[in-house]
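Budget justification note: compute hours in this period were largely spent on complex prediction jobs such as the one shown. Inputs:
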Amino acid sequence: MAITETRPLALPSGEPAQVDLHPVGVFERPKAKRGWRSWVTTVDHKKIGIMYGAAALFFLLVAGSEALLIRAQLWSPRGTLLSADAYNQVFTMHGTTGVFLVVMPLGAAFANYLMPLQIGARDVAFPRINAFSFWCFLFGGIFLNTSWFLGGGADGGWFMYAPNNGVLFSPTHGIDFWNLGLMITGIASLTGAINLIVTVLNMRAPGMTLMKMPVFTWMTLVTQFLLLFAIPVLTSAQFLLMFDRLFDANFFNVAQGANPLLWQHLFWIFGHPEVYLMILPSFGLVSEMLPVFSRKPIFGYPFIVFSGVAIGFMGWGVWAHHMFVSGIGPISVTTFSLTTMFIAVPTGVKILNWTATMWGGKIRFTPPMLFSIGLILMFTIGGLSGVSHSIAPADTQQTDTYYIVAHFHYVLFGGAFFGFMGGLYFYWPKVFGYLLDDRLGKANFWVLLVGFNLTFAPMHVLGLQGMSRRIYTYDAGYGFEIWNKIATIGAFTIATSVVIFLVNIFRSYKRSKDLPPPGADPWDARTIEWMVPSPTPEWNFDPLPTIERVDDFWYRKYGEDENGNLVRIAETEDVIQHGDGKGVHLPSPSYWPIVTAFGLPIIAYGLLYTWWLCLIGGLIVMVGLYGWAMEPPDDPDAAHGDEHGPDDETLEGAELATAESASTGESAEEQEVQTVG
Amino acid sequence: MPRRSRLLKVLGTVSVSIVAVLYVALIVAVLRNDDKPLTTLAPKGVNAQTIQNLVTPVFIVAGVIFVAVFGAVFYILWRFREREDDVSLPEQVHGNSVLEVGWTALPAAILAGIAVLTVITILKLEQRADDALRVRVYGQQWWWSYQYDLDGDGSYDGPNDLTTSNELVIPAGREVDLTISSNDVIHSFWIPALNGKRDAVPGMDTYWKLEADEPGVFSGQCTEFCGLSHANMRMVVRAVEPSKFDEWVANQLRPARSPEPGTLAAAGEVQFGNLCAQCHVVNGRFEKAKENRPPLVSGAAPNLTHLMTRGTFAGAIFNLYYPQQPGAPVPTPGDPADVSTPGDPGDALYGGTSAYPINRVTLEAWLRNPPAMKPAAAGQQRGMPNLGLSEQQIDELVAYLETLK
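Corresponding output:
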């Protein structure tokens, strides 16, 4: 679906496109602009981004509740809240939900909402596929969690090592739900990755070369490439597991000569890039927030970008550091020990460049800035503990203890999640048109910081004192009691901070009616997403901006005098857009992404229960794809206030076309040159 | 502009203080945990010491970097905070290549130094002594078995070799080379005081070594998630003087003696033959279970020939004897004894009689309903099932078990 300006695009032959303008029945495209129908059928990257975020926050509550159960069970020695079986399910689902249904979709939420805005596009390259990605993610996540009501969740740990993942050792359907659910969310990640990569590479505003892209967009690009190559590896492994569990294959059956390390290699070849693709979006957000609240450009933009890309590449060469004690032999251990150590270098560079960004600035302690600073500090701890187990001999003591649990929560919670929280506070006004309360936001930060540290800092000591991971009980006398109590108190403190966040959302919304709207640029920000009104109009930009440099929006407001001092050259009001775009043609909503995605969990249920459901699910997918292919490109009646005529249409298949690059006033020839260039 | 709030200032100060106090407390805890049974920071053997020698400098370097980064960030936050009376805009510095190359190279150089030490340590831990005692270790849900190659012929189940479980008795000061595998899922063998951990992977062998400097008792815990009772899969290493080790071996090689006819224990032996010998082996008396071991599922159960020479039972999670600590609390059924201090068999270790009382309460409770005390998938031949024993049967069995010295 192309996004066009007022001029019609010609076919290559020069013939105007012939389109049936008034299709009938289900092949008519939906028109709803408001209400739940508009959300279900939307192909708007912003609405999809919001839905990703909302779903991720819902799953955050799920994963958080599971975490509270874990912590309550470990409050004292020989806890009796959960049975061994229930505990194993809860920690497995906590990890799985946290990784696949909270952190990854939060990254997807920001990528979807922000990235097109940051590159000056009107939508992503394939808007319907974008919707399809979201629904796959949501249905996959729901499917996974229905296991709770259908015989219990998966109980093999989120890493699901073979052969403990086999039917022999886990006869319930829990692991099947895990396996099939994550295959479905894998489709979401994969289609999303291709979509966003194509968008970044093809749909940037005029003048925006790669090295003028905002850092978040860069990190999104790296992240999506990681997803593109990592997800298929996981899916392959899961496919083998599916055949083992459902069709009696022997890929991981040791009795038939299988080597269980195969699973570990496949899982971690996915699993380690996974770690980086969870943290990089957050790194991108912080790289946006720190300059804004320091009123300085990011220190060493090329270094920040290249270190992100370097992490993306090096992330593929470190997977076996999860296997230092698996018996892979000293040569492999040495190799992966060294590669792991050196991936700390680009990560360290980022920390230092962020610190230097703040140096000499004018630091405003807003909630987004507090979360960004929190990320720098907490991630530093996670990075240092990470280096300590890149030292393979040290790792033989630390791995599978709570020291590791501490480490990756400092990375994924103190790192990724702090960044996302900052991002939520930062971009909330852009997305919803009202600011979150500053004081509640700060309280949110402080309570989260304390809760986070109380929960996870003691786990370093627990691990060094020898407390294993994934144990549902521990005995008195090992020195574990006091630190487990503190960690449990911390977990409930984190829960309090989440409540503060939710309260902030609703209170700020209520109060916002009495406050002046935040305007397009509430933070005096730097990148072009702040040019558009808040909340962002459906068509994003009125005319697409032409980009001259990094932080283009900032330099529309500020210039430098002869001494290199910053001077204001324009009032913000004069350089922002006002949402009065006319004649912007947007892709029409569609029923079919959600229909197609809905068939997938039905097929999955069928694999577990009865083949008839597979047939029904398959039919739904087929109907969805048929409808998708057959629906008309656009509904001419759905245009926004423009008076264009029937010839103002584009041809379907224009999902492949890149009609985004035009800014008003350019000729079609120029457009084409730019697109090719 | 955000309004200033006294409450928030207090909250911020309190928060930073809590975190600071917490960090200090944790550092103190790390420095003072030599008495913790599973601590990784108090090596009692040469291999653990080798690791420690590498870890200590790394932790120090990490500590310095930690202080430097936190110090720098806090200094910057204080010095460059926005002041109300200052409305000027800061200088727009875009970067500094020299600085950036510098702080890329510096960590790389530090890491290169650590890398060299790491490689040396890895190789050191791979070396094996010629005179090492060789032991085959099998993990299974949820206990460990050990087979000693005493005659050094490369076989672990010859007439001169011995099999035991959960408690590994080794001579102090001598290297013990372990060949580790698993009968079902992946487990991990870990005695933190003696060395790091090594996975027990079904279908393949992994290699590891242990050495205790002095006689002592060292606790361990399975650390690779292995299903339902992963938390309850522990093990103990007892390092004894080399001469005592020979004494222990001599006793272990002796087949079981049948109890005097007509005693309670003799009745227990009959019960054992009917109820327990399906899975458990008692050398010289009940060896049927040696044959029925299905590959790669536990099926088999610990060899009980010399049960009473061990200080613990059921995967080293309950004490068979009371620990060697005066005034230790008497355990009650359903609330098994605290094994953070493993039970002490005393002279029973060498076939004699222990000076410490047998923990009969827990042993009986275990026989009454094992899955209640250690979650297990007994229906699938994994873990000890509830046999529905009568009190009479339990008394007889316990009497018999007590003769297995």
